[in-house]
Design brief:
The complex is a heterodimer. Helices cover 37% and strands 24% of the residues of chain A. Chain A has ten helices and ten strands. In chain A, strand 4 and strand 5 form a beta hairpin. By secondary structure, chain B is an all-alpha fold. Chain B has two domains: 41 residues; 213 residues, MetI-like (MetI-like fold, Orthogonal Bundle). In chain B, helix 9 crosses helix 10. The relative contact order of chain B is 0.12. The chains are: A alpha/beta, B mainly alpha. Chains A and B meet through helix 3, helix 5 and helix 7 of A and helix 9 and helix 10 of B.
């Protein structure tokens, strides 16, 4: 995607995410300095930064799992604090973690179908544990992420890469407007990591979803995401289209010296 | 100020550390020596010494009686008819144990999630009310109560309500084991990895759906393992509740002892061996299927 089209989409398209003066402090420690930014619908954003820079804190704030110390998160025009934490929030935002997203004792298919739980009543979800409901939908999602042949296996038996694919398939059924990912491939080997990130980004683009992912690998982030945000000590260092992020910016971002902030 | 590092160096020298294993070994050795001193020495003040010719002779005679040595009649365990008679009792005992574990499993399965603190009072709680939270204490108190009273005592109490037979025995065993199974299973739930559960929650599952899709599937394999373990235990405990007229091999065991039918006692013990081995095998097969 060219810079021009990115710029235009950022101004014209509906805003998926809007942060105004968002900050988070854990006691006296400021994890995230006041931050204001917007993410357009359909944009793919990678958040980079060394450990402890506030990447996970930002994602938790975006997913509503953590309340901010100040400021507000607006998702698709609705303030997150006004949304009920269950189904309503799940329609707007879905999250994938580094690992342990799946229930290990039930099949991959059941894990995927769990993405429908927000739509199903309690009775239907109980019935589904015995006779899987919406099975074609689940199988289609598994096929899209390339693990249809693993549908009947217990999730705990799958490899790390396959588990992340199943977690992505569950997101497909959950169908949120915004997908958040917290280092989704950090526990995978390089080849697997590349495949899974390509898949995640492609699916987000194909279905017009907004993807915001913290990334451990700079190469993967640069190669696949539209926009990179560099975080260090809770402060945004740069927020640019991937093509404009220079090597020295990345070096400065991860530089060991001066990492410890002076109070 | 040259003494400061001096003191520092001094305090950093520690006496040789007694490890946990070392201390345990010393304590065990002390107990072994002490108890033998008691048995061989101090016990002489009692009327019966531990080692004596009489004890040995009595033991030998009883063993001979069990094996039917020195008796004119054929020992019970060598009679086909006796095997046939007792087979019916063994079947009853097995039936009692199955009924008992069924009762225990039903009660435990229906309640164990409500005995887990993380579901009732912690991060997985569907409701934040004190009514819901106090349910935890009700369930746990029920487990403690049923578990604290031994099977035999439950049997003695229940016999008052029912006529003697298999059902009161099974009830007694079932109630006691419901408490044991429930507590063990609740603790499994408390120890579950919450990350998949929170992920389910964030993908739109309601709190009860999280219980059905996250908690139950993760707890069930352990529940089944405990279930088979308790079943094997119940088989052995039927002999005890049998003493108070709760049918099966246990009742026959007491009667045979009373009537000095020692070879029948041997036969019954063989049956117990058969039952325990059989239950072990069945449990192993079922566990593999459940895995």
């Amino acid at each position: 995607m060219s810079l021009a089209s990115l710029e235009s989409s950022r101004t014209e398209a509906a805003q998926a995410v809007s942060l105004s003066g968002l900050s988070k402090a854990y006691g006296p420690i400021e994890a995230l300095a006041p931050l204001s930014l917007t993410v357009a619908a359909g944009e793919t954003v990678a958040i980079l930064g060394p450990s402890g820079s506030g990447k996970t804190t930002l994602l938790l704030l975006l997913s509503g799992q953590l309340g901010p110390s100040s400021g507000a998160v607006t998702l698709v025009g609705r303030e997150i604090a006004q949304l009920s934490p269950g189904k309503e929030l799940a329609q707007l935002v879905g999250m994938i973690h580094q690992q342990f997203d799946l229930v290990p004792n039930i099949s991959a298919l059941h894990n995927v179908l769990a993405g429908r739980l927000g739509e199903w009543g309690l009775f239907k979800s109980l019935v589904s544990l015995v006779w899987p409901q919406d099975r074609p939908m689940g199988m289609e999602a598994l096929a899209r992420v390339g693990v249809a042949d693993r549908a009947e296996l217990r999730a705990g038996r799958l490899s790390g890469g396959e588990q992340q694919r199943v977690a992505i398939a569950r997101l497909l059924l959950q169908d949120p407007a915004i997908v958040l990912a917290d280092e989704p491939v950090a526990s995978l080997d390089q080849a697997r990591a590349g495949e899974v990130i390509r898949l995640l980004v492609r699916i987000a683009r194909d279905s017009g979803k907004t993807l915001i992912s913290s990334m451990h690998s700079v190469e993967l982030a640069r190669a696949h995401f539209d926009r990179l945000i560099g975080l260090r000590n809770g402060i945004v260092q740069f927020d640019l289209p991937s093509s404009q992020v220079a090597d020295d910016m990345l070096l400065a971002l991860y530089d060991i010296k001066g990492l410890r902030r002076e109070d | 100020m040259s003494t400061v590092p001096e003191i520092h160096r001094f305090t950093s020298i520690r006496p040789p550390k007694v490890t946990f294993i070392g201390a345990t070994a010393i304590a065990a050795l002390g107990l072994i020596v002490g108890s033998w001193v008691f048995v061989l020495g101090a016990d002489r003040v009692q009327s019966q010494p531990f080692f004596s010719v009489e004890t040995l002779e009595r033991g030998g005679r009883f063993l001979q009686a069990l094996l039917g040595i020195g008796s004119s009649s054929t020992p019970a365990f060598a009679q086909w008819a006796a095997w046939q008679d007792t087979a019916r009792l063994a079947y009853q005992t097995l039936a009692m144990s199955v009924l008992a574990i069924g009762i225990a499993a039903l009660i435990a399965l229906a309640t164990f999630m409500f005995g887990a603190s993380n579901i009732m009072r912690g991060e997985l709680a569907p409701y934040r009310s004190w009514v819901w939270g106090s349910g935890f204490f009700v369930v746990r108190a029920f487990y403690t109560f049923t578990r604290a009273i031994p099977e035999l005592v439950w049997a003695m109490l229940i016999i008052f309500m029912f006529a003697p037979g298999l059902l009161p025995g099974a009830l007694a065993l079932g109630i006691h084991n419901a408490g044991v199974l429930g507590k063990l299973s609740s603790e499994v739930v408390e120890g579950l990895d919450t990350r998949p559960l929170l992920a389910l929650r964030s993908s739109g599952a309601g709190r009860f759906q999280v219980l059905a899709y996250g908690v139950l599937p993760q707890a069930l394999p352990r529940f089944i393992t405990y279930l088979f373990y308790r079943w094997e235990l119940i088989i052995r405990t039927t002999i005890v509740v049998g003493f108070v007229a709760a049918g099966g091999l246990g009742l026959e065991f007491r009667l045979s002892m009373s009537y000095f039918h020692y070879t029948t006692v041997t036969l019954l013990l063989i049956w117990y061996l058969v039952l325990v081995v059989a239950v072990d095998l069945i449990a192993a097969v079922l566990r593999r299927m459940a895995r």
